[in-house]
């Protein structure tokens, strides 16, 4: 009887491993299919413009001249600026939930709030930005003697920062809750204050997890479309400052794909999607390497 149970357990374990392998291979095939589809559909633009598509600043559908540089700069500038703005708040929330108040009414309320922020559709953030944020940005620009347009990289980054805070905060708080209690107690026994315990025990122990949360937030920011489209100004120009208008690769695809009536025009928009796909993969690969080095 006991031998029969062992054999059955071995067969179930083997079947489960084969299922996991099948699912993993399926995901890899799906990723390759995405990449192949983007390359195939954008091939007319790749064939015509080559690598110059990446650094050309022209975007003229009438003359069929297309370049990705303004959109690439707009995507990276809004994403990294949003990440820079959101990190202090995400870290503060993670420390609050993971160290100071891991349990209780305040912790539960804040967790529900974070989950709600993550669940709100991006178009709602866009409407909120138009109604509330733009007047505030215009007032700030007027006080700084800047043309008070309101729309631009800065406004889009502010809304994007609010949208990505829950990702880094939630993962950071979960990692901090996993820090062994005996390490914290040892730090207190040596006379460390709570902040010193966080600085010398919690942060080093959760460093790789915190960076993974940052990477997750950045990936979310790179692909955001609606809220950024509504606030960035949507001009195919290279921004010279964070208060200039611009656009992102996702925004220009959403705005112009429906009116693309020529093969090269459509292929150029799809090639923007290919560039965004490659940029996301490269950033994730670099992030994984940094996480391995930090762990």
Q: Helix and strand layout, with pairings?
A:
Layout: H1 2-41, H2 43-49, H3 52-55, E1 59-60, E2 65-66, H4 69-100, H5 105-119, H6 122-143, H7 153-177, H8 181-189, H9 194-205, H10 207-223, H11 226-231, H12 249-256, H13 263-294
Antiparallel strand pairs: 1-2
Secondary-structure-derived class: mainly alpha
Q: Quaternary status of these chains? A: single chain
Instruction: Give me the CATH architecture of the largest domain, please.
Output: Orthogonal Bundle
Summed up, the helix count is 13
CA radius of gyration: 24 Å
Identify the overall geometry: globular
CATH topology of the largest domain: MetI-like fold
Element order: H for helix, E for strand: HHHEEHHHHHHHHHH
SS strand fraction: under 5%
Name the poorly predicted regions: none
Q: What is the CATH level 1 assignment of the largest domain?
A: Mainly Alpha
Mean pLDDT: 84
User: The biggest beta sheet, please?
Assistant: 2 strands, antiparallel
Share of residues in helices: over 70%
Count of strand segments? 2
Please state how the strands of the largest beta sheet are arranged side by side. Answer: 1-2
CATH homologous group name of the largest domain:
MetI-like
Please give the alpha-carbon distance between the first and last residues: 45 Å
Can you tell me the number of structural domains?
2
């Amino acid at each position: 009887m006991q031998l029969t149970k062992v054999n059955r357990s071995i067969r179930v374990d083997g079947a489960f491993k084969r299922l996991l392998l099948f699912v993993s291979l399926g995901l890899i095939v799906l990723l390759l299919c995405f990449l192949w589809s983007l390359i195939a559909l954008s091939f007319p633009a790749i064939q015509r413009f080559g690598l110059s598509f990446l650094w050309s600043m022209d975007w003229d559908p009438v003359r069929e001249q297309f370049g990705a540089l303004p959109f690439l700069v707009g995507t990276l500038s809004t994403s990294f600026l949003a990440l820079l703005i959101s990190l202090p708040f995400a870290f503060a929330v993670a420390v609050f939930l993971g160290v100071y108040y891991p349990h209780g009414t305040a912790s539960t309320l804040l967790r529900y709030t974070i989950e709600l922020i993550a669940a709100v559709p991006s178009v709602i953030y866009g409407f909120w930005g138009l109604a509330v944020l733009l007047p505030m940005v215009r007032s700030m620009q007027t006080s700084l003697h800047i043309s008070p347009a309101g729309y631009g990289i800065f406004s889009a980054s502010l809304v994007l920062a609010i949208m990505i805070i829950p990702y880094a905060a939630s993962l950071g708080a979960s990692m901090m809750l996993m820090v062994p209690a005996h390490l914290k107690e040892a730090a207190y026994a040596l006379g460390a204050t709570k902040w010193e315990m966080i600085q010398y025990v919690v942060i080093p122990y959760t460093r790789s997890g915190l960076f993974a949360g940052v990477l997750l937030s950045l990936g979310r920011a790179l692909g955001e479309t609606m809220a950024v489209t509504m606030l960035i100004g949507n001009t195919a120009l290279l921004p010279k400052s964070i208060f200039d208008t611009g656009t992102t690769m996702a925004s220009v695809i959403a705005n112009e794909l429906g009116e693309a009536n020529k093969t090269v025009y459509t292929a150029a928009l799809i090639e923007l999607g290919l560039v965004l796909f490659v940029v996301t993969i490269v950033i994730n690969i670099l992030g994984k390497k940094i996480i391995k080095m930090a762990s």
